[in-house]
Hints:
The protein is an all-beta fold. The protein has no helices and 33 strands.
Amino acid sequence: MITSYIAETAQIGTDAKLGNFCVIGEDVTIGNGCQIGHHVVIHDNTTIGDNVRIDDNTVIGKRPMKAANSAVTKDDELPPCTIASDCIIGTTVVIYRGCNIGEKVLVADLSTVRENVNVGKKTIVGRGVAIENFCNIGSYVKLETNVYITAHSDVADRVFVAPCVATSNDNYIGRTKDRFENFKGVIIKKGARIGVNATILPGKTIEEDSLVAAGALVSRDVPSKKIVAGMPAKVLRDVPEEQLLENQGWDDV
């Protein structure tokens, strides 16, 4: 009885284990010691490093869909998806073709990582997080449950984003042709922290080691090492010295 489909050109590493009803496409490479759950689909040309765990019902290397009126999804051919060693990918996750996931990244259940996205090492992508296309996510980042990272955004190393934070990239809110030339995501610089339920408007920069309070509406750039709060967010005070990234004793800062 056939329980999985594995293309003849796929390469499966030593001690890798595949669950039932998996589909492994052409020229896929799966490293040594990987654990692939049930009903996992890994599309053509995907490369997966060693000791990667991929849970049930997850799809890796999916090609993007393009709506007739999409302003940001392109028809360009994408490079294969790559997932580095020692990652954990949860259940019902979708990771698109053209996405690169660094070492020891956790992508939790029900998350989506779109095409043309890079995720740095040891980053946590929480449950239900959506990272849209053309984004760069740094290393040691924490994106908590239900965070939304809009297309064309940059999130630097050691950033913390609390649950239900929303970002945006379209000041025209889907109307007038100007929007097609002026999409701009958000820039969140190294060590910045964003509190639960905050909203970041298009094109805004949150500078290094700043803190956006819970529920804030960021309608202008946030200065470095400052706490902002309110609707719209305004500078409240300095970030305390003991909370600054430089005072945490981490080797990589």
